[in-house]
Amino acid sequence: MKTTLSSQNLFTTTNTTNEYKEVTSTSRSNFKSCIHDKKCDTNNECIKGVCFEGKCRCRCSPFAHCIKNEDCLGRNLCSNKCISENGTSVNCHFKESCALGSQCLQGVCVGIGRYVRDAYEAISCNIENAEIDCQGYGSKSECTIELGVCIRHKNASEIGRNASNECQGGISATYGFPSCISYDDKPIKCGAKGNMQQCSRGSFCGLYKMAQTPSFKVLLLDIEGTTTSISFVKDVLFPYAYDNVEVFLDENFHRDDVKKVIHGLVILSQKEAANDTDIKTPAEDEISQKCREDLVHNVRVWIKKDKKLTALKELQGIMWKDAYESGKVKSHIYPDVLPVLEKVHSVNIPIYIYSSGSVQAQKLLYQYTSFGDVTRLLSGYFDTNIGPKVESSSYTKIASEIGKPAGEILFLTDVDKEAFAAKSAGLQSKILLRDGNAPISEEAKTTFETIDNFEKIL
What we know:
four-stranded antiparallel beta sheet; globular
């Protein structure tokens, strides 16, 4: 049975005997015995022959209070943790599992939260509405995005030498002045030689970095070639729709959502057949086998020709939904994407998606990624219903829908024509150069900043 701590005392340094009474009485026999982690269930950790829950599998993330795993950023897990004086953490179920001076706290999201260089350690303490005792490696203060770092020099002889932290709350940072952080939550200059008398007890004089938000106020993202490999869509999603469209329509034509899509495909086929001899005009009876056969033919032609047609995208979206939910397909996003989206989201910058794929398909792609559900970070979605991606009017409409000036929106894409269209509408644009993306024009190279990693936008 786990003890419950309030958010007010979550990171305090003192604990009464009563706070640990229930935890210390927990018998080790309640837990599975083990020799190493592989003997434990998934995500559990073997400590001193006992499997404890909540093995940490996360990137650099701050401490935060949590009740369930969904309260934690990224792949962090909500679990009891030993929070030690040097900023490290291990799993625990009772105080005795922790090193001397550490606490066993319930409901704590713990990431690595620690950046180590030759001369100093910098430990993230970016949490809201709670205090963390940074004595020994920083000062005691309420941590905010602006003051989300405790700095400790690894050697007292290095006091006064500039140190910086690259693992803190906020988006990016600019170098400040040698400082310590005071009890009143303000940085205090401590001089080039490190005036320790100006620092809180246990703190060393290091270089404080003020958090800095990016120039854009809204982030608008393309999918293929930007957040997701083109090969995933080309080699996984499109072939799935091509191979399974006949069986899918035969088995599901009676569904209301599929009937609606079939009607849209019939109208689209009649329109496209006038200009494309490869397209068949389907039978008028939309529930007939002949109509479905004609539509299967047309859908496969459009997929081969990589057509960006709304009715086609809606059909693919429904088919992919079934594939995602059944576990047949897991979507791909580049590993550099999620950490940046989490940082952008943490400073209340809304993130939108604009893709030729239907809104439904977009939601599914970000819900069923190999990194888990990413839709929690997204504020909205746009597809070709708002307009073609190569027309500036589409981006003007998006800015109007979002309610922000076009100049405050950053659009990321891998297609130069889309970047030019967004620029014409007044948006900021950058082009992603990733392996497998199509080459861009020389004009685009001189007009836009090109990046190969999402970190470059911060």
